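haha ok so turns out i had the wrong file open the whole time. this is the CORRECT one, sorry everyone. sequence first:
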Amino acid sequence: MERVERSVRAPRARVLVGAAVVPMMLLAVGCSSGSDSDSASADDAPSEVAESALNDTSTPEVVEAAYAVLPNACEVFSQKTLKSLVPEGAKSGKAINTAEANVTGDCRWTSLDDNGVDGSQYRWLSVSLHLLESNAANGPGEDRAHTAFESKVTAAQAVDGAKKVKSEPVTGTGDEATAVSYDLEKKDEGTFKQQTIVVRTENVVITLDYNGAGLAGEKAPDAAALLKSAKSAAKEVVEAVEEANESDSAASKSPSSGATKTPSKGATKGSSSSDGSGSDVSSDSDSSGSGSSTTGGSSSSDSRKSSR
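then structure:
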């Protein structure tokens, strides 16, 4: 009887052990299944984000540039200023390099005070205007103008044949302004005292060139006096740009494409490229029979305009 009891108990023990193994296997399978599900969900997430990014066709918002029009380049100076800078040629203003309206504008004046054998005084004045608009493709007009400004100053500082090149910031004129001065020797004509003022006012770049020379034995003009006159004339051009936009009602009603109507009050360096509304660095280089004109861009001033 004792043997029979032992034989009966043994199989029961084996059944209990087997039953304990089954839940453990089920638990392992359940954990494995959950892990695979989480992994699949994680793998799907990146593709969903990428698809969402591809479907995003929104256009970046660009702030409208402050200025929309340019004044007539041949009318930016008063007669008093012209009589002072080019006394014998105050009415000789000639438009040059005419291009698309409200993108670029240029004008030039020449003056020769001829005293025969006693020598002559020659003066040459030119002004170039360049407006850069804001758009989604190229960014804010002020940033584009800043880049063009720096490029123009650099060019003015590297004129072939220039001697005694000096540069200095010009305060109180636009948002950024630099004066570049140098001497330029002309064969059989003498030494020309060149003054180039490059200004950025909001999204407009101004390049003013003024030079003078003493011909036929006449003494060369004082470079410091020429520079002082050029700086004063540059301020007058900035004011002309402001007035043209203040009086132009269309400027406040026709924002640039894809732009909002809050003017930018500062500029940072940014890339720029040519588009339908003017390239970032226009060909402003001019020359007359005796003088030379250069373009370039760099430096800054603190001046701000009154509210528009």
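The chain is about 35% helix and 25% strand.
again sry for the mixup
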